[in-house]
Amino acid sequence: MKVVGTDLTGVETRQTGFCILDGMKAKTLILHSDKEIIQKIEKIKPGIIAIDAPLSLPKGRKTIDERTDVHLRECDKELLRRRIKFFPITLGPMRLLTKRGIELKKILKKKGFLVIEAYPGGAQDIWKIPRKQKGLEKLRKGLEKLGIKGLRKDMSDHELDAVTCALVGKYFLEGRCEVLGTLDDGIVMPIKND
């Protein structure tokens, strides 16, 4: 069964990393528009789609633009408790990403796809592999140590984070993940095995 991982960006003019994981073999590409992403997913028909973008709002918030003192979801609070660094969804550029992620999830779910929110930086921390900020080659080698095949030396950070999301999706299907919150309003993270 194929799995799709995407490192979504807030606007369609920027690069979205897209990974198709077939077993442990990854194939990546760069996409831009929601239309491109949806068409590609419809062609692949994956068992799950793991998206690196906030896919829900904090309880008590009607929109991302609403001015309120509610900034964190339950899953975000759990990340804080676990000392996993992240950007709050109400922070400047994260607002556009959240809007786009929620809309894309709605469209894909309506088409019958299983969609989960993944957080590659957090997954990389749990797997004890370097995040992209430590160097793309180190991240690529870390993913290869986890068993991923087909990674190229010239892969962008967006592609490597998409690979990470796809691996989280695969692990979820295999029962090797936990959900912080619920599937509708939470983040799927790999289970720590040490």
What key attributes describe this structure?
194 residues, alpha/beta, Nucleotidyltransferase, domain 5, five-stranded mixed beta sheet, two-stranded antiparallel sheet, 7 strands, globular
Summarize the structure in words.
- This protein has a single domain, classed as Nucleotidyltransferase, domain 5 (2-Layer Sandwich), CATH 3.30.420.
- The strands form two sheets. Strands 3-2-1-4-5 form a five-stranded mixed sheet.
- 38% of the residues lie in helices and 18% in strands.
- It contains six helices and seven strands.
- With 194 residues, it is α/β, with parallel strands linked by helices.
- It is globular.
- Helix 4 crosses helix 6 and helix 5 packs parallel to helix 6.
What's this entry about, in short?
The protein is of the alpha/beta class and 194 residues long. The chain has helices spanning 34-44, 74-81, 92-110, 120-127, 136-145, 157-173, and strands spanning 2-7, 16-22, 25-31, 48-51, 115-117, 177-180, 187-190. It is globular, with a radius of gyration of 15 Å.
N-C termini distance:
28 Å
What can be said about the biggest beta sheet? 5 strands, mixed
Helix percentage range: 25-40%
Count of individual beta strands: 7
What is the fold named in CATH at topology level? Answer: Nucleotidyltransferase, domain 5
Order of helical and strand elements: EEEHEHHEHHHEE
Structural class: alpha/beta
Mean pLDDT across the residues is 93
Percentage beta strand: 15-25%
Topology (elements, then pairings):
Blueprint: E1 2-7, E2 16-22, E3 25-31, H1 34-44, E4 48-51, H2 74-81, H3 92-110, E5 115-117, H4 120-127, H5 136-145, H6 157-173, E6 177-180, E7 187-190
Parallel strand pairs: 1-4, 4-5
Antiparallel strand pairs: 1-2, 2-3, 6-7
Helix pairs in contact: 4-6, 5-6
